[in-house]
Amino acid sequence: MMLSDEQQYIVDTWTTDGGAMLVSASAGSGKTRVLSESVRRLLDFSPKEKFRILCLTFTNKAAEEMQDRLKIVKGIKGRAFINTIHAFGLDVIKAYRHELGYIDMPHIVEKDADRKDILKKVFLQSPILEPYFMHLAENSQENSLEVHQKKILTNSLVWISNQKKKLIFLDDDATEYNGWKQEHFHLYKLYSQHLRNQNLIEFDDILLLAWKLLSIPSVASIYQRLYRYVLVDEAQDLNFTQYQIIKVLCGENIRNILMVGDANQAIHGYAGASKEYMFTEFVLDFSAKQAKIEKNYRSSQTVLNIANTIIKSTLNDSKNQFFKGIGEIHSFANENEEAQWIVNKITKLLNLNSGEFDGSVTLDKIAVLARNRFVFSSLINVLDNSILSSRYLLKKGTDSLQPESILMKFFDLGMRVICNPKGDVYQRQLLSLARLDFTKNKHTTGLEFLKKQKLSIYPQLINAWEAIDKSHSNFPKALDMLLENQSEIDDKEREYAQKDIEEWRAAWKKYITNTPPNTRTLADFRRYTVMGFNKTHSTTEQLTLATVHTSKGLEFDIVFLMGMTEGTFPDYRAKTQQALDEEKNNAYVAVTRAKRHIYITYPRQKRMPWDADHVQKKSRFICKLYESKHE
Prior knowledge:
The chain is α/β, with parallel strands linked by helices. The chain has 25 helices and 18 strands.
């Protein structure tokens, strides 16, 4: 497909003139094509130059789409880094971790349960923090010490995360910080030290440490000589940390920056994102030129009309050349009737053949979206008792591998122990899963530690661990070993184990396909899966169930937007005008995932714990659509 005039203008102007440019790109207007073609043109026009291009995305899917579009460009892998900003941060840490005192590449601790386990040790081992953890205050509202401890761990992790997002880094010799209370300072510093002692980092640390490294002039100078051009996708979702990384990376030397985004799709304010970093600070800091691409190439006229009713956007529907499409609103007596209608409608739509759908309708062309995952409860019950059972996928917020079977949970923990002998959090978890005593095992690490355990129910584990300890190339062989001697495992557990092993095998295959042989290690594979790069596209047709946030960047021929009641969408916690504006953006994003048809539904009654027949009010967004229809 050729570029449109407005797309071509952006590509020509920025790749020729350079400098900083902000592009407001409406939903479905082809921003990925603009980014991809800009990279292609820069490399094609300068095939012998040694500069590199940095293209930062916000999802693995967006990165993969751009990589796929550009795979035919000669030398693309060596001349362009196209990936998420977290992947870039990890790359910086891999290259220059020694500047911060890391000898080995740290491992990523991704689960809150793991973080709480480490934090609990911090409280128990600190004379300053232990009293807060082990004793209830006289005026405490918690009814037990256990409730108190759970609350303090949860709140402490949130507080620590917020400090890291403010780019607060404490040096080893620090004795105070910016007027903090003594207990706050000790909490932050001791937790950071416990992570370092176990050679672990959190997701928040990836960007914090990358920013710290890029703040070192000698390191920044290397990257500024290496990268001549920087492109940023979905820039409306930048947060403070991400924007500061871009600023410190560019410094005074990198001025060729292209930021593309849509203010109406800013939906991550809960995570600290703000469109102001793109639309205000970037313009001021880099004297950025501004441009727009407004023509929609994705959605039917009906879908655009609905989107423009929710937010009067820059979508120019008069230029749209697609089919008229369908947009319907339906209400039902309750959630079960709503779910049943959706399943019945999907079943009727399957195999419908129309020029609208580039062939017949299949499950992979349909999605059911909702504001949060709890809305799907009734739908999943109906799906599980229909011909669509096992033919749907509930999209998760993370794409990291999470084993379902006990066998693979053991194998995963053992692999972590082998990869990171310092990480005693995983030793403890393995022993807890096996109901064994840690105190009798605390003087051994790695494979030696694993071989001491009496895991008679899974005798094949030791052989599998020995194989991967000997060489990472034995990983597929180790998975084969896990399938042996399963006679003692019940049928359901065996089924879960086999599905887990298939998923891990696919992840390994994707890893070795995308990773140079000289950089492959078991530890690197673990980081690869934790970052979600392992996600493989299903070869079977599946119906997608997704929250609005996990649907960002996706598109489907037919979309069902369900559970559209006040308190659900918009969310009941949206009290301020800013929060309500973001809910409106969420609705806009949900609608614009549809290419041809959209069906919006809601129940008039909803079962609540305090009221079995709770009457629902239809969402204000639906009210707005009704008003628009009768104007």
